[in-house]
Structures are given as structure tokens and as C-alpha cells.
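user: can you give me the structure for this one chain? C-alpha cells are fine.
assistant: on it. calling the predictor now.
[tool input]
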Amino acid sequence: MDNKNSKVLHLGDILVNAGAISQENLRSALNEQKTSHMRLGEILIKEGYLTENNLADALCQQLELEPVNLAAVRPQQEALAAVPENVATRLNVIPLKLIGSDKIEVAVADPLDVYAVDELALLTNRYVEMRVTTASDINKALVNYYRVQSSVQDAMEDVMKSELSGDTSDVITISQTKAQDVTDIGADAAPVVRLVNSILEQGVREKASDIHIEPAENITRVRFRIDGTLFPSIEIPTNLHLPLVARIKILAGMDIAEKRRPQDGRILIKVGGSRIDLRVSTLPSILGEKVVLRLLDQSNERVGINKLGFSEAHEKMLRDAISLSNGIVLVTGPTGSGKSTTLYSLLDIINSPGKNILTLEDPVEFTIAGLTQIQVNEKIGLTFGAVLRSMLRQDPDIVMVGEMRDTETAQLAVRAALTGHLVLSTLHTNDAPSSINRLIDMGVPYYLLASSLRAVLAQRLVKALCPHCKEQMTVTPAMEHETGIAAGTTVYTPKGCPECRFTGYKGRTVIAEIMPVDLTVRSLISNQASEQEIRDYSRSIGMSTMREDARRKVIEGVTSIEEMLVATLID
């Protein structure tokens, strides 16, 4: 875009021409601007006349500029170095890359701010090429990139000084029992400390479920798993890998001298008032130790049966199952399928002052008032089996066992269910009927299982389509054969926008199948019927499979055909 032309363009006219706002909206905003002296775009967004994404789209369309997704694009270190942090913050820009010897590409929220463009041109002695994004994304990137890059540079200098002086000791340790606020670290803290805290803070703010720190040939990569997908975030020089891992190990209470064996640990942190429990796992590789941190938000904001995406029919079946006074209700699925969140949501329904509810978990993922929550610690003998025996002497009404992972736990859970307790637990199986054979394999007798089992929920998580950019499509005859959705049906497909990191998906939702255990199913279990026989009978009385539940969500526009096919087996 020619900088001279931008001086005669007005934002209001651009937005009206693009159809983003009406003339009435513009007049109202201009009148407010006379008294508030806010920027026109800020007023339009504040009043709800348009969103940040609408504004960015309109500017791209009218000024023929390209958008940029700051979540997917990593700025060059050389570009960040060319524009100091205080200048980038004041001008609200993010330098992206240097092009040749005479150009710099920058992300801007306001491409009409010619003064900012002129200042950047003078500062860098380069022609400024603009890419458009939202102000929110720029603010987030300013924190993520400049703070982390500053920490990396300081840490590099600190490591070099330590190597020269021969001092390789770590600088700070913290209490393992109190959550540390990683946003409240002074400038005098050691550079590696600030670097680790910056990574953890960024992971929490990005709503990542996992942080991967993995050594490569020439760099150490930091990636965040968000909504089930890994996104590259930071690249750190190789010689920072050892101090970075050592700092994390110290926080997690691990042995920093042991680099040959896998280790597990735990870190408690606070970010923005939220307590986050980090489960830390290290694994030796040929290039060094890989570290994965799982982020568990201790608040229960995600808990609630109505927040998970169950259909009304499934929700009613679950409520009926947990209303019983005894028996086992199982939630099955692979790792990361939301089983724990579902269990907590079920406990939230039945939690009352008149019930004694005990939970046995590894780890405790959410804290819920009114529950007695116990965490497994195998190092000191607090195993599932050992603690479960003691729990049954605590006069419980309801017991939640985080996972039936061995014969002892399964048999004790069945015994508890047969002696008047409602037991909720999880199991790793692909679908609901196969959980019966899994428990039989674990040593639970057929007749005891038939008597104690009340319902089995099998679930998966699928990516939800971004509501801001999903596009309509019509199912073709070829697609009907593969999906079971009638040709001519309107469904939705992912597109991609800044709201969803240009993935087309935002958030996840559950797909499920629920197998209620009635008298016939009990008889089938007692008579050692096959898994297929139990599945066929359950479907004959109305059990819908995960594929059918996913198909319903595709038709409703919640998820895509691609997600349905990836997540479910063909019926």
C-alpha cells in the first residue's frame, strides 16, 4: 500500500464502504468521539457496532492488505531487535521479519496511522510493509514475544558468564507447598527464572492443556497444545536447554542430577488469580531431556454437565444413573477424552450437605467444595487399592475412583457398589460394551459385575467449528455413502479466522454413547454373552453410538465431517 494514499483515507468511510457499519453507526460514533476523544475504531467496538475481526477484515478488503495470524506466525529475532519493545508498545505494532536490506514487515491494527509507519521507517531505515491483525492479538504478542525474547537474551548472557566463571549452580528454589505467582517476579530475579515463568504464564494465558519443551539439533522448541492441536511458540538456543530443564526440575521437586531416567513431578503456580497445578514429566532422548507439563486449572469453571455438549437424552440418562443409591457408573475413553471433567460434573449434580462424597484421584484436577478429595501418592504407599480400603471405613455415600487401573482397585470398587455405595470411576476402553470384557479381564467375576454395574458412558472429544468463520456446504452422494448423512443436507466446514488461529475450530465438544444396564444386560453379562451381543441388544433398546452422536453434531453445525470421521469408528 502507498503510504501517501493512506493520508486521505478515513476509517469511517472505509468501514461504511465495506458494509461493516451503517452511516447512522458512524454518525453516533463521531459524536461520541467529540467528547471522549477515543479512537473511532475503539468507540465502534465498545458500542458493539463491529468486532475487532470485522474491523481487521474491512481494512484488509478496502486497503488491499493481507491479514496475519500472530498465533501461527513467529516473528524473526532480527525484526524484534530492530524495533525496541517500548517503541513497539507505544505504536501498537509487532515487527514480523526483515525483507532484503530495505524492507520490514510489521503487523498493525491501524494501517491508517501514518505517523506510526513514518516513525518505523525512520527508526529502521526501511520501507514498511503492513499486515493487518487485531489490537488484542498485538497486545498478546507484545507480552509473549518481547518478554520471552528478553528473558532468552538475558539467560544467554547469564549462562555465558556462569561458564566463564565456572559457576553452574542454580539461582533460586521455591517452596513446594505454596503456589507461586509467576506474573509477580521482579526484574532482579535470575534470567532463567524469568524465562521459565514467561513460558508458564504464556501457556496459561493461551489456555494450553500441555506445554512441550523438546530439544532439537540446533534449538529447543516450546510448543503449546491448544484444543488438542500443538502450536509452535518459542525457539530457544540449545545452550539454554540444560538450565531451563534444571529450573523446571527444581520447581517440580525432581532430581536435577538424574538425566538418564524418566521423572515425574508437580508445580503449583498462580496466574491471574487462578491456581494452576502443573504435572511435569521428563523423558531422556538422544538430544537431551524432553519435558512435558500438563496444566490443570484448579478452579471448576469448566465443570457442569450443561457445558460439555451432551444431548438432552444423554444428560437425562446420566442423571438417572447417578440418582441411584448404589452401583457402578463408568466413564470410559482414551487419555484426554474429558473423562475426569465429566465425573466432576456428575459429582457437582449430586453434591449436597446430606451426602458424604469421597474422591480418590491421581491427580486432583479440580477442587470442589463439599467433597473430601484424596490424592494418590504411590511413593509412600498411598495407592488406589490401599486408600480405597480406608475410604470405605469413612461412611461414604458416594465414592469417586479416578481410574480402575488394576485388579485390586476394580474388585474393591465392585465390593463397595454391592454394599450400598454409589461408585463413579473411569476406564480406558474404546466404547461402552467393551468395558465389560475389560473388567472381566481385570478379575471381576461375571456375576458380581452383572449385579453392580448400572451404566457405562463412553466418550471422545471432537473439535468444535469456529462460530465466527464456519462455512456452509452441501453433502454429496459420495459423502452420503461415507458419512451416513443424506445427500443434499447442509452442513458446515472449517475456514479459519483470527478468532480460531486460522484453524477453523475453536474449543471442543463431547460425543458419547451411553449403555444403561437393565435386567436383560445383566442376564447377558451373567451368561457370558459376547461383546457384540451386548452391543446389539443395547442398540435395539435405543443406545446411540458415538458415530451417530457425532453425525447429529455435524448436522447441527457443531463439528465437521472430518472430525466425525477421525474420532469415530464406522458402525
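assistant: here you go. Confidence is low (pLDDT under 50) at residues 1-8, 167-177. The two ends are 54 Å apart (CA to CA).
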